[in-house]
Amino acid sequence: MKELMIRFDPAIKITFLFFHFAGFSVWIGLLAAEQTSISAIAVTVVSGILLVVRELVKEDLIWFVSVEGLLTIGKVLILTFAFIFSAKYQSILFLLIFLGILSAHLPKSIKDKKLFKSPGVNK
């Protein structure tokens, strides 16, 4: 199963990123009009969680201690809290945009850097 998922990883990633971007764009747009869409929020949160699961399948649990993993977990947690607390704070969403841009444009050597060392892990 893991080999099949790695084989189709580019298509899976693009699909999840598309839904993530679309949901977030609708969410931001509706906030500008002072409206809220539960479906746009749900698409954003669910696609974010699916992106995390994709990384975990691809790289195992060591991904949690990488720079990219910690940034992504932080964004998913912020989105979840924004959803729970009515998601009407534009400053929170603009912080997420900043974190998303930052994590998308980091060099691969920094993204993959492990912040915590474990004696049993040689990755």
Helix and strand topology:
Elements: H1 2-7, H2 9-32, H3 38-59, H4 67-84, H5 90-105, H6 108-111
Structural class: mainly alpha
H/E order of the elements? HHHHHH
Which band does the percent of strand residues land in?
under 5%
Low-confidence stretches: none
DSSP summary, beta strand count = 0
The radius of gyration is: 16 Å
Task: Report mean pLDDT, rounded to a whole number.
Answer: 81
Q: Work out the count of structural domains.
A: 1
What does the model show?
The protein is globular and about 45 Å long. It has one domain. With 123 residues, the protein is mainly α. The model has no long low-confidence stretch (mean pLDDT 81).
Please tag this protein with its features.
mainly alpha, 123 residues, globular
TL;DR of this structure?
The chain has 123 residues and is mostly helical. It has 6 helices and no strands.
